[in-house]
Amino acid sequence: MKKIKSVCVFCSSSNNIEEKYRKSARKLATILSSNNITTIYGGGNTGMMGDLAGVCISKNANIIGVIPQFLKERENLHYNLTKVYIEENMHNRKRRMYNLSDMFICLPGGLGTLDEFAEVLSWKQLGIHNKPIVLINIDNYWSKLLNFFDEIDNKRFTYNNKSSLFNIIDNVEKIVSIIN
Fold first, then answer.
1. Using one digit for the tens of pLDDT, what is the confidence trace for 121-163?
2. Which residues contact 21 (CB under 8 A, 6 or more apart)?
3. Long-range contacts of 95-100 (CB under 8 A, 24+ apart)
4. Quick one: 135 exposed, middle or buried, by C-beta within 10 A (0-12, 13-18, 19+)?
5. Mind listing the pLDDT tens digit for each residue in 46-83?
6. 20 to 30 A from 113, CA-CA: which of 15, 43, 82, 169?
7. If DSSP codes are grouped into helix, strand and coil, which group holds residue 93?
8. In which element (H, E) is residue 106 found?
9. Is 167 helix (H, G, I), strand (E, B) or coil?
10. For residue 169, what is the enclosing H or E element?
11. Which of 3, 6, 23, 179 has its CA nearest to residue 96?
C-alpha cells in the first residue's frame, strides 16, 4: 500500500451536536497534523468541520477545503485554510475531494456525511478505487448503519462484505495504526 499523504474527512457541520463528537474531530486533526498528513474536508467553519480545520490551522498543518458555491455562505467557508476549492455543485465537490485524497475517514455526521461515505464505498465495491476507507464509530454512532450493512450482506445484495471494503474503529486514536 502506498504511503498516506492526504486524508479526506467526512463529518458533520452542525453546531448542535454533543461535545464528544466535536472532540473526536479535534483529536483526529491533531493526529493527522502530527503525522504530516494533508487534510481534505468540506471547507466549512461550523460543527465538526470547523473544529477539524481549527486544529489543523493552529498546528500549521495543510488543510484543504472543498465547498460548492451554494454552501459557501451557509456553512461559513473557512478563510484560513491552506487552499480552498469552490466547486459548481456537490458532484464536482466530491470528485475533487476524491482526487485529492489517498484515504477516506468518516466521522459521525448527517445525510451529507452518509452520502459522501456511501459514494466512496460504492466506488470501491465497483473497483473504481482501492483507497482505504475508515468509519469511526464513536459511541456506536454508526452501529445501526453497520447492522443494515450486515443485512445487505446476508441477503446477498453486495459483491463484497463490508470487511473487505472499509475498516471500522471505535475511537480516533486507532487511526494511527491504519495511516502508518
1. 999 999 999 999 999 999 999 999 999 998 988 898 877 666 7
2. 12, 48, 107, 108, 138, 141
3. 96/66, 97/8, 97/40, 97/42, 97/66, 98/8, 98/123, 98/129, 100/6, 100/8, 100/38, 100/40, 100/64, 100/66
4. buried
5. 999 999 999 999 999 999 999 999 887 676 788 899 99
6. 82
7. helix
8. strand 103-106
9. strand
10. strand 167-169
11. 6
One-letter amino acid for residue 157 of the chain? F
- Residue 171 grid cell: 475511537
Contact by Cβ (8 Å): 102, 84: no
Extract the C-alpha cell encoding 156: 446477498
Please give the full DSSP string across 39-92, using - where no structure is assigned. EEE--BSSHHHHHHHHHHHHTT--EEEEEEGGGTTTTTB-TTSSEEEEESSHHH
CA 2 to mean position of chain CA atoms: 19
Residue with C-alpha cell 492526504?
A: 6
User: What does the block give as the cell for 30?
Assistant: 491533531
Q: Which amino acid is at 86?
A: I
Q: Provide the residue type at 64 as one letter.
A: I
Q: In sequence order, which residues have a C-beta less than 8 Å from that of residue 154 and are 6 or more positions away?
A: none
Nearest CA to 134 out of 112, 107, 159, 111 is that of: 107
What is the CB neighbour count within 10 angstroms for residue 142? 23
